[in-house]
Specification:
This protein is of the alpha+beta class and 142 residues long. It is 63% helix and 15% strand. The protein has a 3-stranded antiparallel beta sheet. A two-stranded antiparallel sheet has the order 1-2.
Length: 142
């Protein structure tokens, strides 16, 4: 089988394949321009408000298990992007807060994502991209 730009030549690609190719390009850009964060870690950081959250609250917001979220939090704490300490409301719980380094990494990653979106809009036209984004958001929300 022959491939052109990652797509099988002569076959109608399904949407998950197309989304995977786009996401692969985004991951590549993030790795080059914001190497401190993996996309999966970015997902966790994006949900952290300034005052922080418990691991359970963060897991609920991200749609992860508490155990899985805890693993990401440990990774991020190991890189200095978050701090974990006692929750003032419940001393048995751990509260996760983003650090200055985490905010810097998040800003850099968001800059890459914004740049990708601008490039896509420029490529297909602002109105077509706006409609695409609305439809994609509607599909994603179910």
């Amino acid at each position: 089988m022959t491939y052109v730009n990652g797509l099988p030549e002569g076959l109608e690609p399904h949407v998950p394949l197309l989304m995977g190719l786009v996401f692969g390009r985004v991951r590549g850009r993030l790795a080059q321009e914001a190497p401190a964060l993996r996309p999966s870690q970015l997902r966790v950081l994006e949900w952290l408000p300034a005052g922080g959250l418990t691991i359970s609250e963060l897991a609920e917001r991200t749609g992860m298990t508490t155990q899985g979220c805890g693993q990401f939090v440990r990774q991020l704490a190991g890189t200095g992007m978050v701090e974990v300490g006692p929750d003032p409301r419940d001393h048995r719980a751990k509260r996760v807060t983003i650090t200055d380094l985490g905010r810097e990494g998040l800003a850099r990653a968001r800059g890459v994502l914004d740049s990708c979106e601008r490039e896509w809009a420029d490529s297909v036209g602002a109105e077509r991209y706006r409609v695409f984004r609305e439809v994609l958001e509607q599909v994603a929300r179910g």
